[in-house]
Design goal:
This protein is of the alpha/beta class and about 350 residues long. Helices cover about 30% and strands about 25% of the residues. Helix 1 packs across helix 9.
């Protein structure tokens, strides 16, 4: 079977998806949507830095809706326009195309409220299609991997899932500065993540998914944000971080059940290895279960000196690609990460050479 795929958005991770699909003979890219008008009219391969693919990118939504395809890889950066992204997702589903999407707010539609979830359910019913939200963290580690580990537990007091990454080589100025708040004074309200309620939106959806999967009552879900400043000027891929401004951020949220934190999902991120020396270190993800038995599982990314943030984005891309077969074969409606059938990345064993990340 050949999986006919449309690539929606060609940002950092979106390009990785397109490059990896192009090297897999069982997949065929039949269309590409771009937001930047300067990319429209160009070959998708040219946009992604590989040989031409014979697929011309467009910023015409109707042209994409009119295409015949099995699945849309929806990798839009939806943080600034969740309603707009929802409109696009629902239109795609209603047009008869399954959708796999990666924005954090879209991992678990139920967490966004009955209207949000209801629109997706209605669109799936109209198109006879399946919707699936995923990622890495959020979207895989704290959901699929963590839930699997709970099978070894007699008693669980606390499930703590966290990501640790050095972001000095990550090039997105918007995500690092405008969104997360690096390079700002600690009390500056300008960055989106200066508001703990906005911070909670990164993990709240996954927290709710896991809690409901294990039937844990939820009193409330709280967001938090802790900061550390740099004692020297820093020049990083995303821009300049001045002395005395934010250079390390710990953010996340926790599920409070019966008055106690029971599930925590968080991120420890730095722009310099020497900042926040007491925080956890590493480049990857950790799952800790306090209980009986106590468990710590570590998953590192970029173990041979690769750019860790690129490797994390590539992991997201591959999770999306490997989901295509089971999403296409699933019943119509919303497919939660807690309901994913057994699936593997077996095709990765057959890829020759090294692709450009």
């Amino acid at each position: 079977m050949t999986y006919r795929v449309i690539q929606w958005a060609t940002g950092h991770t979106g390009k990785m998806v397109a490059r990896a699909i192009a090297e897999r003979p069982e997949y065929q890219i039949v269309g590409a949507f771009v937001y930047n008008p300067e990319k429209a009219g160009k070959d998708l391969g040219e946009i992604c830095g590989i040989d031409k693919l014979g697929v011309i990118a467009t910023n015409d939504r109707q042209a994409i809706l009119d295409m015949d395809a099995d699945c849309v890889m929806f990798l839009a950066g939806a943080e600034n326009d969740v309603p707009g992204a929802l409109n696009d997702v629902c239109a795609l589903l209603a047009s008869g195309k399954n959708v796999i999407t990666t924005p954090a707010q879209f991992v678990y539609p139920k967490s966004m409220g009955p209207e949000f979830e209801g629109r997706i359910v209605e669109a799936c019913a109209k198109g006879g299609t399946t919707y699936h939200g995923l990622g890495v963290m959020p979207g895989f580690i704290a959901e699929n991997v963590a839930l699997t580990l709970t099978r070894m537990s007699r008693k669980i007091d606390l499930l703590n899932c966290y990501e640790t990454l050095l972001y000095n080589e990550y090039p997105s100025t918007f995500q690092m500065f405008d969104l997360m708040g690096f390079g700002y004074e600690p009390d500056d309200p300008t960055p989106m993540f200066s508001n703990p309620e906005v911070v909670a939106e990164v993990w709240r959806h996954s927290c709710m998914l896991v809690a409901e999967a294990v039937n844990l009552p939820i009193d409330r879900i709280e967001g938090f944000r802790n900061l550390e400043m740099t004692d020297k000027d820093l020049h990083v891929a995303a821009g300049f971080i001045g002395k005395g401004t934010v250079a390390a951020i710990n953010f996340g949220c926790q599920v409070i059940s019966n008055g106690e934190p029971r599930i925590v999902m968080q991120h420890y991120t730095r722009m310099c290895p020497n900042v926040a020396p007491d925080w956890p270190r590493g480049d990857g993800w950790t799952i800790e279960i306090e209980g009986e038995p106590s468990i710590r599982a570590k998953i590192e990314v970029g173990i041979h000196g690769e750019v860790h943030t690129d490797q994390g984005c590539l992991a997201t891309a591959m999770h999306a690609i490997h989901a295509v077969p089971y999403v296409i074969s699933s019943a119509s409606g919303i497919l939660s990460l807690a309901d994913v059938p057994p699936s593997w990345g077996g095709d990765a064993f057959h890829i020759k050479g090294t692709s450009k990340n």
